[in-house]
Amino acid sequence: MPATVRRRSVVGWWSPDPRGVIELDNLQVSRSLRAATRRFRLRVDTRFDEVVARCADPRRPYGWISPQMAAAYSRLHRLGWAHSVEAWTPDGRLAGGLYGLSVGGLFAGESMWHEPQPFGRDASKVALVGLVSLLRRAPRPDARLLDVQWVTPHLASLGAVPLPRPVYLARLRAAIGLAQPEWTDAAADPDV
User: Hey, which residues does 102 pair with through a beta bridge?
Assistant: First the structure.
């Protein structure tokens, strides 16, 4: 009987040019999103692994977060490099959130997720508003970099813009030398 061959999956490395970023002063908060910020309570890093697991749900299209990737992000979280911002309903349900990597003044958003309608509507966008508030409250907000990788139509509606690689790399060098932001619930309170 032939031996079973196990293939190793290859992890892709993406470095789009141009690179999608959201300038902290240019986050687009619509009237309905502003209203949604009042429907949720934001927390930071309370359910990091659950946020990653929800983002990795295999029913989501274009899934890329394997169990091995989730385990690596969990370890990075325990080491203080990965963080989540979570949107909670008043009755204590986790409705949505986002996570990413934080290196100095860089936050590289990895994925965001929200529960289906009605209670999760806009929850991931509210988490993004909270993340931007947290980054704005840190020293030197003008030099911080919120990397969203791509400028999709959804992210463009929130203010994402493309940066050519040379501009992005110069901003990245400046950002990573900054101090980490304060990863607390209070720092993520929306200031919209």
Answer: 107
CATH number at residue 101: 3.40.630.70
Reading phi first (left if > 0) and then psi (alpha if -120 to 50, else beta), residue 71 is in alpha
Decide if 14 is inside a domain: no
* Alpha carbon distances (Å) from 60 to 56, 84, 111: 8, 19, 12
Per-residue pLDDT of the chain (192 residues; tens, 9 = 90+): 444 444 456 666 678 899 999 999 999 999 999 999 999 999 999 999 999 999 987 776 666 788 899 999 999 999 999 999 999 999 999 999 999 999 999 999 999 999 987 778 899 999 999 999 999 999 999 999 999 999 999 999 999 999 999 999 999 999 999 999 999 999 999 876
Residue 84: φ, ψ to 5°: -125, 150
Instruction: Give yes or no for a contact between 42 and 178, defined as CB atoms under 8 angstroms apart.
Output: no
Nearest to 40 by CA among 165, 152, 128: 128
Residue 82 neighbours by CB distance under 10 Å:
21
In a domain, 1, yes or no: no
Tokens linked to 10: 């290859």
Kindly state the tokens that stand for 100: 């990413």
Does the residue 96 lie in any domain? yes
Q: How many structural domains are present in the chain?
A: 1
In a domain? residue 11: no
